[in-house]
Amino acid sequence: EVPYICQFPGCGSGYSWSKSLTRHQRTHTRERPYPCSVANCGMSFSRPDILDHQRTDTGEEPFACECVQKFSQRGNLAIHKRRCPQRSDANS
To answer: Locate the C2H2-type domain: which residues (predicted)?
Structure first.
C-alpha cells in the first residue's frame, strides 16, 4: 500500500515517497520551479537535476573516456565505453 496518492481528478497514482508525488503532480500543474542559470536561456524544469541541460548551454563535458572522447552526461559516457575499442577491459 502506498501512502501518497495523487488527488488530481481522474488520476489516483500512488507513491511511496512524498517527493515522488510532488514530482508527479507537476505533470498535472506544469509547474517548473527550477530555472536554468545560464544567461539568456530562459528554460525552466520540473526537476532539480538540470545540470545536464546547463552543460548543453555551456558546452561543458566533464565525463571523459580513455580514448579522449568527452561527454556532458555520465550516461552517454557509459554507452560509449561499452563500444569503445580502447576501454580498460578490452586491453587485457
So the answer is: 4-33, 34-62
